[in-house]
Amino acid sequence: MTTATPFGRALCAMITPFTSAGALDVDGAQRLAARLVAEGCDGLVLSGTTGESPTTSDAEKAALVTAVREAVGDRASVVAGVGTFDTRHTVELALAAEKAGADGVLVVSPYYSRPPQDALEAHFREVADASGLPVMLYDIPGRTGTRIEPETLIRLAGHPRIVAVKDCSYDFLGAQKVLARTELAYYAGCDEHNLALYAVGGAGYVSTVANVVPAQLRAVIDAFDAGDTAGAARSQQRATALIELMMSAGLPGTVTAKALLNELGLPAGPVRAPLRPADRAAVDGLLAEYELLV
């Protein structure tokens, strides 16, 4: 078991800002990244689910890493999402992220093809062998169709560059089993688990909701670290309604995060198809809940 935090504790799964015409908004990405770090994020995860990685090009992914690295310097870690359903392509993206200045890579399970566990393990090892960057595995079976089973994670923990997991498995027992038997840094990938996973030895969180309330989420783990467990619980509970509305009310987190950021005059822009923007009623509901929290 470890309490190491290789990429920080309070990580934001950052949206990818686009211009009104739908192009990558490099300036907006830099401004948003700087704001997130100033308000408590010590790590930024780019081109993940929330960052619309399926609809951004390889060149856009690399440009985003370069721009954000320039904006935040050494004040925060920069982790680049490189996972695809193709091992060869994932390796190419990992090498490009390393060249662009990333501190680590986020590698999701190959989706759609649903490889068995031995093939999944081989995929992750090949990606980890390909570059010098530390790897955060991304376990989100609800989207990929494939679980990274606890025993597979325990074996992968022996690789010197596989150092962390972003956990969206909704298997709290499985996460604790891996925590107890490895030195992998576990990050909550579902905001409702931020405090719970941290309390049993997790490293922190990779949060979509942090795009809009970074300071409020950071306050949860800061209170816990200070020994104020009741205060940490209260802060987590206060955020629950917004977490539910952003993540579990029928719209993807990318859509709800961008809707709120746009309402607040912060860099976001449109989502790319097949995603569609939130309607006015949904935006009004999000904004009302946000205002209650802040």
UniProtKB/TrEMBL annotation:
CDD domains membership: DHDPS (cd00950)
Domain of life: Bacteria
InterPro entries the UniProt entry points to: Aldolase_TIM, DapA, DapA-like, Schiff_base-form_aldolases_AS, Schiff_base-form_aldolases_CS
EC numbers on record: 4.3.3.7
Residues the entry annotates as binding pyruvate: T50, V206
Pathway: Amino-acid biosynthesis; L-lysine biosynthesis via DAP pathway; (S)-tetrahydrodipicolinate from L-aspartate: step 3/4
Record flagged with keyword Cytoplasm: yes
Catalytic activity line of the entry: L-aspartate 4-semialdehyde + pyruvate = (2S,4S)-4-hydroxy-2,3,4,5-tetrahydrodipicolinate + H2O + H(+)
UniProt-annotated location(s): Cytoplasm
GO molecular function, one term: 4-hydroxy-tetrahydrodipicolinate synthase activity
Entry annotation: catalytic residues: Y138 (proton donor/acceptor), K166 (schiff-base intermediate with substrate)
Gene3D superfamilies per the UniProt record, alphabetical: Aldolase class I
Keywords: Amino-acid biosynthesis, Cytoplasm, Diaminopimelate biosynthesis, Lyase, Lysine biosynthesis, Schiff base
Enzyme class: lyase
Site residues, Part of a proton relay during catalysis: T49, Y112
Stated role: Catalyzes the condensation of (S)-aspartate-beta-semialdehyde [(S)-ASA] and pyruvate to 4-hydroxy-tetrahydrodipicolinate (HTPA).
Family per similarity comment: Belongs to the DapA family.
Oligomer and partners: Homotetramer; dimer of dimers.
Protein's name according to its UniProt entry: 4-hydroxy-tetrahydrodipicolinate synthase
Gene behind the chain: dapA
